[in-house]
Amino acid sequence: MNGAAGDPVRGAQLAANLARVEERIADACATAGRDRKEVTLIVVTKTYPATDVRLLAGLGVREVAENRDQEAGPKAEATADLPLSWHFVGQLQTNKARSVVRYADHVHSVDRLRLVGALSSAATAAGRRIGCLVQVALDAESGDRGERGGVAPDAVPALADALASAPGLRLDGLMTVAPLSGAYAGQPRAAFDRLMEISSRLRETHPAATMVSAGMSQDLDEAVTAGATHVRVGTAVLGVRPGLR
Ligand SMILES: *Cc1c(COP(=O)(O)O)cnc(C)c1O
């Protein structure tokens, strides 16, 4: 039976996984001399059903993320009765902006001016204010975008300024995915240190842009040690995704 309380076996599995992730975050905070409260766990529920989101909410999870609008929209709708905040973390087409601003409180993947414009119009029309993060591609060359989205570090200031002055949007900080290629490949700690430098620079002109979204299942420890404020964890909580995305 799969009633309102959900599958108890799956619930126990998610609880155990969450406890292990929680322990990793706490250990990394202790190592870095940080307060555990400085780090927010965002559970990435992509490819997993709304029933899992419901179980996670029952276990105290409040922040969840998705990377595709087609999947996120229906899932957010199916769990609209729960006290959840949704984060959009995937590459975003401008024609999806109107849909995303309906359920997402944060978009972590802003990487071009056209997207700022689309999100701003959509948020204004929906009467919403969306927290936005500039996605930084640490493996992108000057002026380029990375393969997994994101802009080269030298493009961050212009995008940040655009976000900060866009109606309906709020500049909240920066996001990155540890690069698989380039100088930072296999060096998540160095990558996250670099992101922290870019974040410090950003906060000189935008002091409220304090979010640093970095770290996934494999490298959340390094991200927390470096100073991340938000970690985005999928696999370590929900299990290995079929097809690995
Ligand atoms: C899928 C995804 C995650 C979570 O990755 P895991 O390795 O499963 O923890 C984090 N961030 C983004 C942008 C993602 O697409």
Could you explain the architecture of this structure?
- It comes from Actinacidiphila epipremni.
- Residues 17-242 form the Alanine racemase N-terminal domain.
- Belongs to the pyridoxal phosphate-binding protein YggS/PROSC family.
- Pyridoxal 5'-phosphate (PLP)-binding protein, which is involved in PLP homeostasis.
- With 245 residues, the protein is an alpha/beta fold.
- It has one domain (2-238): TIM Barrel, CATH 3.20.20.
- 42% of the residues lie in helices and 17% in strands.
- The protein is built from 9 helices and 8 strands.
- The chain has an 8-stranded parallel beta sheet.
- α5 (113-126) links the parallel β4 and β5 (130-136).
- α1 (8-32) runs parallel beside α8, α4 (97-103) packs across α5 (113-126) and α7 (188-205) crosses α8 (220-226).
- The protein is globular and about 50 Å long.
- Pyridoxal-5'-phosphate binds at residues 44, 46, 67, 89-90, 177, 216-218, 232-236.
What tags apply to this protein structure?
Pyridoxal phosphate homeostasis protein, 8-stranded parallel sheet, alpha/beta, TIM Barrel, 245 residues, binds pyridoxal-5'-phosphate
Short description:
This is Pyridoxal phosphate homeostasis protein. The protein has 245 residues and is an alpha/beta fold. Helix content is 42%, strand content 17%.
SSE arrangement:
Blueprint: H1 8-32, E1 40-44, H2 50-58, E2 63-66, H3 69-78, E3 85-88, H4 97-103, E4 104-110, H5 113-126, E5 130-136, H6 156-164, E6 169-176, H7 188-205, E7 211-213, H8 220-226, E8 230-233, H9 235-238
Parallel strand pairs: 1-2, 1-8, 2-3, 3-4, 4-5, 5-6, 6-7
Helix pairs in contact: 1-8, 3-4, 4-5, 7-8
The structure holds pyridoxal-5'-phosphate.
Keywords: Pyridoxal phosphate
Organism: Actinacidiphila epipremni
Modified residues (N6-(pyridoxal phosphate)lysine): 46
